[in-house]
């Protein structure tokens, strides 16, 4: 029988085949899974780990609304509590194009749903870009195209279109948002705006803020951290449509208001400083402005600090000064001046009016420096009040001829006379008596080799010779010129502090503008204490220095600073600048001379000359500190002392010229009126035949010189006549008084003690010549000795 072959494979072979297929399938599935899973894993890793913070932030932005709440910037006060800088609530108008796009999509869905369900369409306009841009443009005055350009940035949630809008404007924007369902696409965000109530007052000291409300200049920048406070926030939840869920989640993070600053400045004294400086510039036609500083010599507290040119704190980028404006207008009209050159000139002018000349610039102090040389020489014992000095008009030093301002010479003089005459050869001799080493040591002791450390930005340092050179044989001419304040440059503030030390008992103080920092509840966070650096000279030397400097005003080159009733001391100065034919004229004065309460430094930069290299103005006035700066500095001191309540003390010779306030005479019997007028040193004449005074000229409270004649009306109607003010500028005191009396006017004279002086002439009058004024009006006339040459 033949062999039979089974038609099926053996079972063990099939099992092997199945296992192979299974393994292959699992391998392919594993490979396929890995191909799919690994990129997915990498993507998840990127999302969850690598880009975790990015997506977390995106989620927060989509689910929450976050608005900044501006902190109120601190207020700046003067020493008497008057507001110098303050903040008020205003509003920024901000677009969120991303949210506007969402509003547009929601509107389209609402329209589609309404049509599908046959329901009313939305009862407000479609929030198209054009509609929004047109509406906001009409309210804000912003070009429509600018708003459309910002709306096109649909990935952005912050596009500011108007900054610091007033309440009236922001109210209209809110109404536009509410009526047209435009929240959160348009946001009215509260912020603050800085206001300066006094416009230009103390501009270079206070400074200003930038567009972001951060300090940019002056004290605003110096104390930015203290004034700014901390910004708060409001965080709210949003739904998927971007609508704020105010009751679901809301978190307020309170802002911290900035601290307030109280300054040592007194707004009234600051006004006096600015008024005096403006008058001095007008009288001298100073081409480069000037400065006027008032300080308490016993503490270093600055009471007033004026600079010119100046600017309006509320509009700091505008050119405010008329001289700078005129120069820029001339440049703009010149076809040869490029736009780039003009813009550079505008930038330079802007920086010039922002600049605090008294701390950021240096100058040659000229003869005002002699007060310090005097104090040093007295303290060192190398001179005394009985020493004599001879001036021939010039002196030879190291081959150079140095001349006195009085070319024919002063002849023989005592020490006080040499100071009163401001004699250069005499002070060269005093400097030589001191010697270079001792002289240099006093430069150091009086603070000229260091910054004053005043709490202001941009303080410059002095430019003074190296000690080795100054004390060497080659430095002998430098000692000579330094003895009368030339060829060394210092800051005005250094000069003021050093002279304070010379007249306050010898104490050198750190000057300061800040008095205290307080919080919103008035709690004192910081108080600035008086800081004495060192004692430079003795109390006795300081007393002797004051006495001699008082004589400078009563008898010497500073006599134009004289004011009846006040004892004033000081020193005049006239110094050349690096520009040929340009001078800085100044006066450094203090009062009362026996017990100084205030010290001032007034300087006028580059009075206009009649011709190149001339020492006279176009009106014929000699360019000098004694003739130009002393008169306004003396009146400034008097104004400040009056404000401080310092009582006037008249000498016997001054009593007859004392100004008197006209009392109320009306309704009094003539006999009683006569008695009252005699009591205050006034005379009278009558108009009418009555027995009771029915009216008077001048009016009650007017200030007139002692001995003036008052017109009393006895039943007659008071004259309504007006008279023309005569020109008295250039006249002597006697001639000016006669001219005004003949016109039926009264003269109030300042800056003069001797009405018979022929060298003293009127420099200004309070009412311009040709003005029509009522009969009996008082005209204030300021006199000055026009012959003073220092």
Write the layout of secondary structure elements.
Elements: H1 11-50, H2 52-63, E1 64-69, E2 76-77, E3 83-95, H3 97-116, H4 129-140, H5 144-151, E4 159-165, H6 167-179, E5 186-195, H7 203-206, H8 218-222, H9 224-228, E6 232-238, E7 244-253, E8 260-263, H10 267-284, E9 290-295, E10 302-308, H11 322-333, H12 339-354, H13 357-360, H14 370-380, E11 388-391, E12 394-397, E13 400-403, E14 411-414, H15 415-421, H16 424-434, H17 436-445, H18 467-470, H19 476-482, H20 492-503, E15 507-509, E16 514-518, E17 524-527, E18 532-535, H21 539-554, E19 569-576, E20 583-591, E21 598-605, H22 625-644, E22 659-661, H23 670-679, E23 683-687, E24 695-697, E25 703-705, E26 709-713, E27 722-724, H24 733-742, E28 746-750, E29 760-765, E30 772-774, E31 778-785
Parallel strand pairs: 2-8, 23-26, 28-31
Antiparallel strand pairs: 1-6, 2-3, 3-4, 3-5, 6-7, 8-16, 9-10, 9-21, 11-14, 12-13, 15-18, 16-17, 19-20, 20-21, 22-25, 24-26, 27-30, 29-31
């Amino acid at each position: 029988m033949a062999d039979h072959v089974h038609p099926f494979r053996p079972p063990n072979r099939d099992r092997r085949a199945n296992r192979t297929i299974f393994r292959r399938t699992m391998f392919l599935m594993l490979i396929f899974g890995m191909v799919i899973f690994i990129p997915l894993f990498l993507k998840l890793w990127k999302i969850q780990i690598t880009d975790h913070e990015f997506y977390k932030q995106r989620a927060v932005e989509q689910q929450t609304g976050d608005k900044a709440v501006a902190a109120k910037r601190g207020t700046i006060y003067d020493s008497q509590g008057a507001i110098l800088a303050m903040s008020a609530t205003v509003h920024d108008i901000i677009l969120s194009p991303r949210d506007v796009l969402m509003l547009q999509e929601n509107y389209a869905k609402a329209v589609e749903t309404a049509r599908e369900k046959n329901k009313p369409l939305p009862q407000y306009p479609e929030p198209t870009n054009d509609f929004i841009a047109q509406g906001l443009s009409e309210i804000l005055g912003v070009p429509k195209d600018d708003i459309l350009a910002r709306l096109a940035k649909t990935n952005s949630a912050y596009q500011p279109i108007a900054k610091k809008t007033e309440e009236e404007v922001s109210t209209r924007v809110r109404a536009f948002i509410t009526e047209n369902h435009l929240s959160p696409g348009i946001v009215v965000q509260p912020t603050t705006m800085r206001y300066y109530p006094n416009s230009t007052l103390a501009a270079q000291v206070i400074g200003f803020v930038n567009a972001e409300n951060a300090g940019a200049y002056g004290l605003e920048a110096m104390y930015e951290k203290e004034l700014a406070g901390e910004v708060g926030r409001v965080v709210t939840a949003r739904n998927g449509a971007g609508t704020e869920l105010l009751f679901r989640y809301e978190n307020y993070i309170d802002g911290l208001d900035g601290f307030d600053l109280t300054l040592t400045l007194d707004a009234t004294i600051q006004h006096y400083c600015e008024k005096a400086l403006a008058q001095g510039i007008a009288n001298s036609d100073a081409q480069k402005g000037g400065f006027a500083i008032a300080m308490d010599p016993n503490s270093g507290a600055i009471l007033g600090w004026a600079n010119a040119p100046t600017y309006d704190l509320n509009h700091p980028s505008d050119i405010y000064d008329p001289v700078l404006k005129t120069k820029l207008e001339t440049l703009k009209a010149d076809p040869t001046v490029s736009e780039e050159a003009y813009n550079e000139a505008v930038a330079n002018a802007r920086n010039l009016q922002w600049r605090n000349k008294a701390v950021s610039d240096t100058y040659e102090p000229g003869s005002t420096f002699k007060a310090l040389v005097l104090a040093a020489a007295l303290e060192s014992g190398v001179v005394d009040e009985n020493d004599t000095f001879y001036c021939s008009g010039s002196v030879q030093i190291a081959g150079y001829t140095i001349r006195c301002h009085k070319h024919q010479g002063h002849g023989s003089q005592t020490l006080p006379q040499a100071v009163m005459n401001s004699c250069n050869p005499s002070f060269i001799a005093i400097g030589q008596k001191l010697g270079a080493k001792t002289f240099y040591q006093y430069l150091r002791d009086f603070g000229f080799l260091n910054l004053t450390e005043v709490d202001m930005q941009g303080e410059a340092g002095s430019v003074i010779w190296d000690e080795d050179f100054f004390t060497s044989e080659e430095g002998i001419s430098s000692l000579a010129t330094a003895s009368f304040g030339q060829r060394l440059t210092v800051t005005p503030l250094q000069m003021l502090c050093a002279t304070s030390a010379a007249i306050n008992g010898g104490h050198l103080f750190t000057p300061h503008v800040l008095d205290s920092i307080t919080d919103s509840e008035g709690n004192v966070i910081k108080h600035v204490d008086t800081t004495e650096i060192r004692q430079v000279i003795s109390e006795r030397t300081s007393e002797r220095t004051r006495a001699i400097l008082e004589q400078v005003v009563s008898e010497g080159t500073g006599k134009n600073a004289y004011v009846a009733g006040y004892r004033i001391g000081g020193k005049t100065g006239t110094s050349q600048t690096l520009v040929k034919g340009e001078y800085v004229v100044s006066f450094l004065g203090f009062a009362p001379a026996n017990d100084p309460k205030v010290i001032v430094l007034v300087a006028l930069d580059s009075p206009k000359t009649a011709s190149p290299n001339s020492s006279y103005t176009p009106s014929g006035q000699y360019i000098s500190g004694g003739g130009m700066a002393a008169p306004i500095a003396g009146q400034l001191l008097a104004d400040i002392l009056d404000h401080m309540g310092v009582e006037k003390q008249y000498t016997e010779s001054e009593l007859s010229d004392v100004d008197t306030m006209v009392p109320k005479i009306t309704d009094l019997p003539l006999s009683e009126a006569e008695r009252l007028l005699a009591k205050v040193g006034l005379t009278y004449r009558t108009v009418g035949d009555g027995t009771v005074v029915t009216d008077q000229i001048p009016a009650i409270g007017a200030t007139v010189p002692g001995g003036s004649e008052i017109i009393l009306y006895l039943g007659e109607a008071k004259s309504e006549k007006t008279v023309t003010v005569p020109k008295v500028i250039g006249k002597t005191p006697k001639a000016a008084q006669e001219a005004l009396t003949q016109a039926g006017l009264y003269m109030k004279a300042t800056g003069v003690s001797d009405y018979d002086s022929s060298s003293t002439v009127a420099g200004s009058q309070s009412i311009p010549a040709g003005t029509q004024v009522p009969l009996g009006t008082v005209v204030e006339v300021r006199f000055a000795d026009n012959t003073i040459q220092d």
